[in-house]
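[09:14] KT: can someone run the structure on this one? pasting the chain below
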Amino acid sequence: MAAEPAYATFGLAPATRAGGVLSDGAYQVHRDFLDFIVDGRPLLLRLADLDAVSPLASDLGPSVFTAHVRRLLLETEPPLAGGRYVIYGCPECEGLECGAVTAVIERDGTDVVWRDFAWQTDEVADLEQGGYPGVGPFRFRGDQYRAELERLLSGAGERAAARRVLLVGRRAAVLARLASALRTIGIGADLTRDAAGADADELRAYGAVAFDGAVEQRERDAVHRAFEAAGADAVFVEALAPVIPLLVAQIEQALDRTPEDRRRLTALSATSGGGTVEVTVEVAAPCRVQLTAYRLDRFQRTRTRELFDDQLEPGRHVIEPDAQAVRGEAFVVARTTGGVLAAAVRRGERPSWRS
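[09:31] RB: done, structure tokens below
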């Protein structure tokens, strides 16, 4: 009697590819999407440090989104030769020339099988050069697989509307530049000085609210009350400093709806004392981490310094950058595939490993 095949579970969960204003002035587009959860773990995390999104992105038009779902349901012909489907693609465009993770998706009786994962840049995949050894094959029970995807077609799925941010403050020039930067990376942004009396449906459309430093506490409290009365679940962001890349990073952090246990970058802190600086980063999966310092000089000009850019293994890591890079009022941004964290450098504290 033949043994019953080993089955994997199939699911979907919200994930984010964080956008941002990079230290060289370039922009990285923000994308919200649904990741594939195989045996309780995001499939993207099995593919090393890959900057990519699934075809189930929230900013796609309804007809395009539905077409991608129906492809995964095997209701239409494979888009690539050899019965291959795009599993993850470039976050900035849909061109195959940028590279994509593809796999053969096929029926086997009532089951659905994903196999032969590969990094593909041409019409035909080269498994010897671009294959992912040890990833798959995955066999899913057909009824469970179809039920997860069909929920998206029925409107009961987890597809989220594109996130918007409400910017509250008096510094019109800073907020206008911030709104422009956010819109450039694909995040809607609106400016106001007072949210009291705003329509409840409108407030519920915002994923985050950012205050500039000139907003008084009573004004902040009024905005909090307005959002609470509307039943909105927006995250409130207190601006660390009027530095656009730093503010964008804070807002990206606030908008990230990826469950905590499915994030690569999990913690960031920075301390300075005794002439030594310690930046502590925690990661949950192997990934490339970039650390950037921003500081304001005596004339309130922004100074930027790259502190670290390398691959890290899971765990807690301590980096000791040049103390001059974070002198005065300074902040650190940690960025990795799919996530970003920002933190102020705490002064007058001895680094923990010296305690």
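[09:33] KT: thanks! Helices lie at 62-72, 127-130, 142-154, 172-184, 200-204, 217-230, 244-255.
[09:34] RB: yep, looked fine to me
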